[in-house]
Design goal:
With 296 residues, the protein is an alpha/beta fold. The chain is built from 14 helices and 9 strands. GO terms for molecular function: 2-hydroxy-3-oxopropionate reductase activity.
Amino acid sequence: MSKLPKVAWIGLGIMGSPMSENLIKAGYDVTGFTLEQDKLERLAAAGGTAAGSIAEAVRDADVVITMVPASPQVEAIAYGPDGILENARSGALLVDMSSITPRTSVDLAKAAAAKGIRVLDAPVSGGEAGAVEAVLSIMVGGEQADFDAAEPIFEALGRTIALCGPHGSGQTVKAANQLIVAVNIQACAEAVVFLEKSGVDLRAALDVLNGGLAGSTVLTRKKDNFLSRDFKPGFRIDLHHKDMGIVTDAARTVGAALPVGAVVAQLVASLRAQGDGGLDHSALLRAVERLSGARL
């Protein structure tokens, strides 16, 4: 019998499925639940156990991990008679890896404590590729002892792992991450349109730029998207729109100005309004092309 903690995984989407599979590969007993039957079948095929409900998934778990799109979904799976807090055992550790508002994480930790359940907020960065390759950055909020208990699990999922402060701190750092990523993608998109309109060899230009100070993980990961105009979602515009709302609201609360971030947030919102919300966030290129009169 494995001495590793038993894990319940709630949310098996673009990120959750490969992450849960990496835990299975690392030897963890993973029971999962999601609303999509094909995702449950994928988990079972990878060696996990498919549950018929949240209650069934979390009942015997030592660690419950959630990975869902936004705060409303976290609240929906956490609270109520069929939710995690009513059905997980006292002493369990709830690790929410969703990207939500810091306030939602703080409120969840308080509600869970009343049930004897410990909580960490642990959002991630790295996109689908980072999830598949188990090289995610994981930014964590909560108590040191709980972080120490969860660290072996984090090490099976990511490469850069840090406890950033008390409950909500992981979400605050993730909000800053999404601000940086969005502004970086926007700058890359503007450079791509500028280079193409100038008639240079775009592939050569991006290669040489990525080897200098202008290089970034964003450019490395998204360069082929720009070159091929392949915007199959690794991280959807819809989700980045949600995240830009989180960071602009949180910045307003603490009195931090985001002049460039606010502009990029509006560009992300405009993409959604034009029907591009389901595309990868590298589709910010389409917004620059429209503004530049380029043919999409």
